[in-house]
Amino acid sequence: MKVKTSFAQAHFERLRDAVGNAPYEQIDAVAELLYRAYLNGKQVFVMGNGGSAATASHFASDLSKNTVVPGRRRFRAICLNDNLPVITALANDLGYESIFVEQMRNLLRPGDVVVVVTGSGNSPNIIEALKYARTCSATTIAFLGFDGGKAKSLVDAYIHLECADYGLVEDFHYALGHFFREYFQNRIAQDGRSSLHI
Fold first, then answer.
1. Which of 108, 117, 159, 194 could share a disulfide with 72, CB 3.0–4.6 Å?
2. Paired strand residues for 158
3. Looking at residues 128-134, what average pLDDT do you find?
């Protein structure tokens, strides 16, 4: 007699299958870009909308706090969707598409890194941020889903899970943050170039 698959089992099997198609070479390439920025003392700006905003916030928090190794320099990371008064002021006065790019005009410098977290890759505020970052000689990175959207052609590197389920894409993006936290904490601990004394 065939055992009926539970809803929970079906869901997590879909997640397993989606993550099983993770683009590991893309992940490695993004890791190298972020680590180079870390070694050079560059600022990392992270941003997203909705569920991706929560992922962006968690990722920036993990980079700035949970990669800390005593005696080594720290990641300089900030999430641009965390300052609600600034976001609402910009959205009210200039339009929601401006909430990230206008913050970047105050802060972004050449060589800094802009990381966007977006399932669709088509959010207008994300696209405006990437276009501006390119004019500032910043490195651009995207965590993507679906077909990658417009963002895919505007970045230096991306991690693209080709999946058309928002929930599974967001789960994968969240897991990337935890992977990078562990990866960088270990690499920083083993790499003498990250010493505060150089």
1. 194
2. 142
3. 98
